[in-house]
Amino acid sequence: MRRRVMATSACLLFLLSACGDEGGGALTLPSRGPKPIVGVILPDQTSSTRWEEQDRPLLTQAFNYADIEPFIENANGDETKFVQIAEEMIRRKVKVLVTTPLSPAGGLAVQKRAKEAGIPVIDYDRLTLGGSAEYYVSFDGVNVGQLQAEGMLSCLGDKRGAQVVEMEGAPTDHNATLFAQGHKAVLGPMYESGALKLVKTQSVDGWKPDIGGPLFEEILNGNGGKVDAVVAGNDGIAGAVIEVLKKKNLAGKVPVTGQDATVEGLQAILRGDQCMTVYKPVRDEAEAVARLAIAVAKGDLDGADDLATGNLRDPVARRDIKSVLLGATLIKKDNVRRLATEGVVKAKELCVGDLAAVCASQDIVGG
Q: What's the whole-number average pLDDT of the chain?
């Protein structure tokens, strides 16, 4: 799988700025005006803060600018609600349905209904294995996993036989499978040669930190309290791992990876508790899916096909899906400043309390 980076549109990038509606309980029904409607179903508000803080406002502004009526709802981690939202969107005759499935089963159920109604589907950030989506927009998952493994190795140094625990994401999320493939590509040969020792690979249901923490603690205790490095699937799981390590007086001594470049994850990196994270520019991903959805909603299928930069193989459906696969960046302590400079994170939110001095030493300043 090659890293794919989509060309940006200056106009749309200007409009994709963080402001907009909050996720709520009742459906926010669109007007019944003449504008074409695009339906978007976000997955939850717990696996990552990005869905409500970034994706919703970015997509809302992009669709409004293109004279498209946005119908954006959050399933809040509920499979039943996910399907109910989709059914209402289909009833409202959306021109295209953009979904981030909670699981392959839920995604398949929704895509079946959409196909029967003649409504095209774009899988956003997560692939519905065995599904029928016309397009897929996400980051190069294998590459993300490789960055995590490479970052962990750079923090671990030359410690032959180092014991590694892999805390992977949700087993129902194909992204977690792709990340694990990236981990295996880098670390697999080292496990086989004895350069590293794999203690255990553990999936974490729903990417939930409150599940991941106890699971990691059980693994750690079962290994005599010994661990030299932890590959954690995202910053949330990493945070739960770090809390366990603190109880064992191991925080800062054991490299822990992450993903998503959350404020909490970046703060852990500045404190020295977390080794690295992976920055995936949500703005780029939102722009990519918005451009695709707008083209499809306006009937410009040739234009939509031109936006797809490659294909991703669905091993269950045994078909290639027209895709946009975006690149990611490895973030360690020495380049956290870049994210503050680019406005990805605000220095005043990052550099609080005990981190003020650390930020000053890293030249992280500003609003």
A: 91
